[in-house]
Design goal:
Two copies of one chain form a homodimer. The first copy, chain A, is of the alpha/beta class and 301 residues long. In chain A, 36% of the residues lie in helices and 23% in strands. Chain A has nine helices and 14 strands.
Chain lengths: 301, 301
């Protein structure tokens, strides 16, 4: 089999549930590959074969540098890449080499930590670095929606502070596993129910706990539909998050790193508060961040 | 096999996960039986055989009246016993007969509903009725801890209003299914962490969303132990509930219907706010309520 693809380095985004790899020539993507060998499924000795299998077609006689970000660098990952405390630049020059038995040369990007309030991120620091590459000189607040949404304050090329919210995971647990699942069986989304719930939760955040079961009762007593209930649940959770994250967005320059439904929900929620935000594609940012890490750390090979 | 037990009626507490039956003579328990044939596991035609199997030893040639409360009366249960809107007495004279193919004579107690804010209960109305029987003339607020904790305002023998909170279910989902489970693996409980978190959530309820992931980060960065994390998670959720339920307990006469760890957590949380509460045994209240329903509805047989 001939080798059509000869990357000069390989970028790897290795999260809890997915493994994605990009054959790179400078900042250009030559090819991509992905599998479901996320960090959460692998034991320490399974990382090397999982990666080797995915990128086998891209390997040449010469060793190709590989730069990885995400949960692969956690304590339960391939190698622990120690947290770097904020305030700091999102990327360090130094990466952490992963132990390998063969020819792979893999370096892992460190996450960031904050002492008080206690917080950590892993993977998002690379997206933040990429966003900074793509928007040089930009100061403001970046919102990174996800299972664990992050809000990060950026200034003069550094991450000054950040805060994580579990709203995404809470939405998944409540809509899939709690008694509310019975009221959310059909698909759909009702914009007005969402913005109403956002406003309600922002103005009276202490009512969140009281409002949740009300969604179930509204369905039982008044036949409230799934589209309304789903949007209201999302609105309550994102509204409560905005109430807690107010110092991050009030009067700030805000960008949202994400393109899916969840990112659009954050955009709409911020709009209800009169806060415009810029939507930025996640993959571009991740690749720009991995590229920056690769360039910065040239010293290693 | 000789019949040692000859009840004049049978009390049944049939919830989502358990079925419990009591052979009764007036208000006296002659025998008890229980199984895991909860409403959640049964289809419509499985209720009658499940009950018949459990109480077979108690049945005589004469038909014995059976009174049941709980989720058995929901739309997904044996027969739908329609909600009664508050304000009203916790029990009506009229019970709903369950369809049977054999000799069982089963009547089901209705739940209560509230139009605004939307809310429902099923099973707790019987405990409330029993509490009223055991404490005649008592006016105040009853807290019924559970998967879905209820707060009910009682006055002059009626349930005036009530409110349901999902804090119990949220605690179970977050400690078993979310990323926080990694930080809660060992047993234990730290009282100070609990009361600190209660105070924090009551005084700044909008911070709940922000504090949850902080429990995970505190474990990763500072090695916070499981006993502290578990108590803090419980304290945050119950504190947020107390913030939302303030009109129910502030300056009120409060009783807590429950005896386990969860009931004691509510007692301790109310103590942090200077609110004394009386703890009342749930089973006594349930039986007193079923007995009252049986006596009130004598007309039916």
């Amino acid at each position: 089999m001939s080798k059509d693809i000869a990357p000069d380095w390989i970028a790897v985004d290795w999260g809890t549930t997915n493994l994605r790899a990009f054959a790179m020539q400078g900042a250009t993507v030559l090819a991509r590959a992905q599998s479901e060998d996320g960090m959460g499924k692998l034991s320490a000795d399974q990382f090397e074969p999982a990666l080797a299998a995915l990128i086998a077609d891209w390997l040449t006689a010469d060793t190709v540098p590989i730069v990885a970000c995400g949960m692969v660098g956690s304590r339960q990952g391939w190698v622990e890449a120690p947290y770097r405390p904020v305030p700091c630049t999102p990327l360090a020059d130094q990466l952490t080499p992963a132990p390998t038995s063969g020819d792979l040369d893999v370096r892992v990007i460190s996450g960031l930590s904050q002492a008080a309030p206690s917080d950590v991120m892993r993977g998002e620091e690379t997206q933040i670095a990429g966003f900074m590459q793509l928007n040089p000189g930009w100061d403001g607040v970046l919102c990174l929606p996800g299972t664990h949404t992050k809000w990060a304050q950026l200034s003069a090329g550094e991450v000054v502070s950040f805060q994580t919210f579990m709203s995404g995971e809470l939405f998944a647990l409540l809509s899939d596993k709690s008694v509310l699942r019975h009221s959310l069986k059909e698909a759909g989304w009702e914009d007005d129910a969402f913005s109403g719930a956002v406003n309600d939760a922002i103005s009276k955040p202490e009512r969140l706990a009281a409002r949740l079961f009300g969604l179930r009762a509204g369905h039982l007593l008044h036949g409230t539909g799934a589209a309304t209930t789903r949007a209201a649940l999302s609105g309550l959770l994102i509204g409560a998050e905005l109430a807690a994250a107010r110092p991050y967005w009030l009067g700030q320059n805000v960008a949202i790193l994400g393109m899916g439904r969840q990112a659009n929900a954050y955009l709409a929620a911020l709009e209800t508060q009169g806060v415009p935000a810029m939507l930025v594609d996640t993959e571009s940012a991740t690749l720009a961040g991995l590229t920056a890490a690769h360039r910065q750390s040239k010293a290693y090979s």
